[in-house]
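Changelog excerpt

This revision adds worked examples to the README so contributors can see how folded entries look when concatenated. The first example is reproduced verbatim below.
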Amino acid sequence: MKRIYLDHAATSPMHPEVAEKMLVLMKESFGNPSSIHSFGRDARRILDESRRSLAKSIGAKPSELIFTSGGTEADNLAVIGTAFANKTLGNHIITTEIEHHAVLHACKFLEKNGFNVTYLPVDKSGYISVEQVKSNLTDQTILVSVMYGNNEVGTIQPIKEIGEVLKDHQAYFHTDAVQAYGIERLHVGELGVDLLTASSHKINGPKGVGFLYVRSGISLQPSLYGGEQELKRRAGTENVPGIYGFSLAASLSIKEPSQKQEFYQQCKDIMISVFKEQHLDYDVNSPSQGLAHVLNVYFPNTHIESLLVNLDISGIAASSGSACTAGSVDPSHVLVSMFGKDSDRLTSSVRFSFGYGTTLEDVRYAANEISKIVKRVTA
């Protein structure tokens, strides 16, 4: 049976070149980068080179990157760390209803600790407006956290414009760019962000490693205590092989972004054209100008669990949305915010996402199989 992976927004296969070079490194360079002997110095050199490469990919200084165990830790450190370190300036935070749970749950934690959080609703395409941010700012606002590109429907928020609004305000600006990094061109100076999150396993790197960009001069309260790694901002021996793999994956991923986006758009166009040819009843939840690799589709009169099981039996991997809640019966909080809690779309929408290894032939084949399944489960 042919197996086709269309769930790259959940995680991506490791690039063979990354895996091969990481294996060599794990065998030959096992030193602790905090050690002063030759083994440690070798590890430190690799760590520093990787940090420089990753910082350059977003227009940052190497010292502005904190390596973490992934996007979740980076988001937590950005939200909770910034809030606690700056609570003398205010206790108000602004975010959106469709953030990743790593941000939303961090905000819920802060609410239990005396902070006030404003959750901005989105329109039917998943957008917030700059005016929403502006009208909710107060002299107590210390942090605004808005996802760059949504992981479930692909909506890209007006980050640069929000950055302009916050330029003369005390609030720090964080963006979760986990889903956009490696797809969109990101430059922290041009975007006007103070903090930015990225993760390795979304761009064909290893799992368990990410980074948080923190603009120079910003104070964070650490979430881990122990050693003095990462300029005393994140204790724990650095995951040198993972960080090295992350830097390799990033170098490969950020090459020719426009060509990559054009290819993913072709994937979307082929899938939609097949659905039309097969006379399917469907609607696209993703905005036309969203992340190129994410396509969220509503199939009326289907049920997501039945649909996903049948897709899996046919060898096609897709998702109902966020991988972190894939085992939950709760409806997608993103679709709830977009369409309301009573919408049929909550239980009948599927996310397809493309990436390394995807071919146009696979997309066409999968789209035809999807069409058969949708017709069968709605018959």
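The second example, added in the same revision:
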Amino acid sequence: MSSGVPATTTDVVPLSEPAEGVGRVITTAAALADVGEAFGAGSGPVAADAERASGYRYGQATYLVQLRRAGAGTALVDPTELPDLSALGTAVGDAEWVLHAASQDLPGLAEHGLRPASLFDTELAARLLGMPRVGLAAVVADTLGLGLAKEHSAVDWSTRPLPQDWLRYAALDVEVLVEVRDVLAERLAEAGKSEWAAQEFEHVRTLPPPAPRPEPWRRVSGTHTVKGRRRLAVVRSLWQAREENARRRDVSPGRVLPDRAIVAAAKAMPASVPQLVALPDFATKGARRRAPAWQEAIDRALALDEADLPSTRGPRTDGPPQPRTWADRDPVAARRLAGARDVVSALSEELSVPAENLLQPDALRRVCWTPPEPANAEEIGDFLRGRAAREWQIELLAPRLAAVFAAT
């Protein structure tokens, strides 16, 4: 089952039941202590996954933690009943943890005291290997020839009690994760990419929490179609009212009021509740019931002084301008960027690594807009290092970028 030969579609065998069954969900301190003892006595890496209720609840809280280790089996733990899981982390010590797309789950696991001492990310490994599809089901099929169902990936994991078929799905997510890791590790070694992967895994493992986004209301889908500062103020005010309502009710903001409704109201700028509910996007029962609150938010925006209206340009950042403006603002920088992108694209094809995994686009833009002086490989390397580029990326790209910059 651990052959390194990619499976074809016809080779895939459905994986429908965990080897030891699903088992019960751990909800008591006594049961958690037993799990900690078993996992501490187990061997090898710890496979882990976490389930959230994105699209249903406010925020990104974790509602189920799945763990598996050789000699210990699989444990499904309810962190709403057992918020402190640090004893589990202590029990496994410095064992490697295996996750798929770890950056999605590590913050939630850390909130419950689970912080891996080392990491193997199967999704990142698949990217570095140039696999065409990197979702967990696709990677399991490619590496092990097993079919992993994903029909419950978007359900409301805050539901209690959790249905048995959801728990089966959750257990299967970690059932063969260590076996997948072993195949991918073998392929990385054969491709000469093991050190690249190690640096990427450590980068993800040690990432600090993201800084708060300035003016997050601008992420309302469709805001780019809203013209004028007054209408943007309506978007902002409705977003703020929606956030307050969603946080108080612990409901996903999109379920409280869809983005399209916010944009529709900003474009129409209704002056009364009847005008607001006449808009098609406010015709639902929930939107009509809360219409007075939404109209109050709109009225606050309509009453603002001009000086308090948001800018049409968005918040100021320390980054370079949009690349589409470079040709007019700095033609030399535009040529640097074009040449640098060609280098990254060619290297991506040669190494079978996605361009964004060779270097973050933001770092590439920044070094092209304001290159260091002198723009040699060493200085460019230091610049990229300051933008969190890893050493393997710097080794590959700094000399090539220096050649491009010298030619422009």
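Reviewer comment on example two: Residues 216-308 form a domain with the DNA polymerase; domain 1 fold (CATH 1.10.150.80). The longest strand covers residues 43-52.
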